[in-house]
Specification:
This protein has about 210 residues and is of the alpha+beta class. The chain contains 6 helices and 11 strands. The chain has one domain: C8orf32 fold (Roll).
């Protein structure tokens, strides 16, 4: 778990929600277009992410020859939804303190257990192996509906930014998650960029 002071709020990604919920998302057609999330400058990398990149350098590499966006087709949309659902239904949730005996550790859940960032790292690995550009899929830190730190995978597409999340089997436009978006991996280098606490329009409704 990492702690990051953000104004008066402490984000603790180690508290990330671990329960996935089933959904009946329709996959027959493409979703409506979503807005992209603009970055607003540099952000400090997470220590656990930095350590993960030392161990799994290829998972953090940025190839600027790759597309910065996924071209969304019905086939690609179905792939995103299928991988999100598959990992959510396969990996068993476990906090890092229970799993590894440390506050925060990013890792691929090869033993079948993990917390929020581990779910999303595995999803990206599977999607890359299926042919999608890693550069277009960025690990992202958010503040969730409980005002706790959480990690999602943001897939940047030609129809906007969508999130893969272990809390839901639905692939949602970032603006429909109810989260506050804090920072994500850069698409141009091995670094992080700030999202300026971009607020999903559903945040207020979700927190009443």
């Amino acid at each position: 778990m990492f702690f990051k002071k953000l104004g008066s709020l402490i984000i603790a990604v180690g508290f990330c929600g671990l329960a996935a919920s089933a959904s009946a998302q329709t996959l027959a057609a493409l979703p409506r277009e979503a807005e992209p999330i603009a970055s607003v400058g540099e952000a400090r990398p997470l220590p656990a992410w930095t350590e993960f990149c030392r161990t799994y350098a290829a998972e953090c590499a940025v190839d600027r020859n790759e597309p910065a966006q996924v071209t969304l087709t019905p086939k690609t949309w179905q792939l995103l939804a299928a991988v999100n659902r598959k990992v959510n239904g396969t990996i068993k949730p476990m906090l890092d303190a229970d799993h590894w005996g440390v506050a925060d550790r990013w890792d691929l859940p090869t033993d079948g257990y993990g917390d929020c960032e581990d779910f999303q790292l595995l999803k990206r690995k599977m999607l890359v192996e299926a042919g999608l550009p890693r550069r277009a899929m960025r690990m992202t830190v958010v503040i969730d509906e409980k005002n706790e730190g959480h990690a999602v995978l943001v897939v940047r597409t030609n129809q906007g930014d969508f999130t893969l999340d272990n809390k839901t089997d639905e692939v949602l436009p970032w603006s429909e998650t109810g989260y506050i978006f804090v920072k994500r991996e850069s698409q141009d280098e091995i670094a992080w960029v700030s999202l300026g606490r971009a607020t999903s329009p559903t945040v207020t409704a979700n927190r009443r």
